[in-house]
Amino acid sequence: MSGSLFLAIFTGFWYWLGQSKLGYTFHWFICQPIVMALPIGLIMGDVPTAMIMGASIELVYMGMVAAGANMPADECLAGLIAIPIGLQTGMDPQMAVTFAIPFGVLGVFVDQARRTINAGFAHLADKHALNANTKGIYMCAFVWPMLLGFLLRFPPVFLANFYGANAVQGFLDIIPEWILHGLSVAGGILPALGFAIIIFIIGKQKLLPFFIIGFFLVQYLELNIMASAIFGTCVALLIIFLGKSPNSDNEEGGQRI
């Protein structure tokens, strides 16, 4: 099996599994460009560049919120096509970000098509429920949606990564240099947009003290990114654990007794 064929199959399956939403936290984890960049980099033999591309694309989507479970963009599809093709064609990370955006939008249309077709399975499950057919309900709730998801999600990623690099390279060869430079500049600006969205989210009055404390701790203590992430995680865990209902410990204690 050639390397490009294996990469196309791997990324196709990754997209299918990632957006199938199997295991809530696991699904969000593997859909992130910074996560998928590592295995893609290992397969293509250039982990540093893949991680830089993944981190750059991640910044664009980091503040994205799927209100009402309707995602405004599909970062999983964007990363799974932009990172491999970016590595194959020698794009710089900024241009890879620009290249990823249209695929992020395309993923929304794929998801909307899935939801529309899935509505038919819901009505079919209602009929099975009237007949107490539990096996039919299970097929409508899990098996048929998974197969539909495979048909909708595997082919575009597989075809893009198997045939897309040559097409993209040919397209890049005929684009004037000044347009390529403009795309790179635009790609450098897009992560700033992601930061702006994050600031909009954390700019709530009750969260601003954490932002200010974190900023000055980094400045005065000269903490690096890893140390900041560790302390930030600990603070978040403290808030979760200490923010529990006062009755929760009593209830847990009562259950143990």
TrEMBL record:
The keyword tRNA processing does not apply. It is found in: Cell membrane. It comes from Irregularibacter muris. One of its GO terms (biological process) is phosphoenolpyruvate-dependent sugar phosphotransferase system. GO terms for cellular component: plasma membrane. It is a multi-pass membrane protein. Keywords: Cell membrane, Membrane, Phosphotransferase system, Sugar transport, Transmembrane, Transmembrane helix, Transport. The chain crosses the membrane at residues 26-47, 59-87, 93-110, 137-158, 178-203, 210-243. This is PTS sugar transporter subunit IIC. It comes from the Bacteria. PROSITE patterns: PTS_EIIC_TYPE_4. InterPro entries: GatZ_KbaZ_carbometab (IPR050303), PTS_IIC_man (IPR004700).
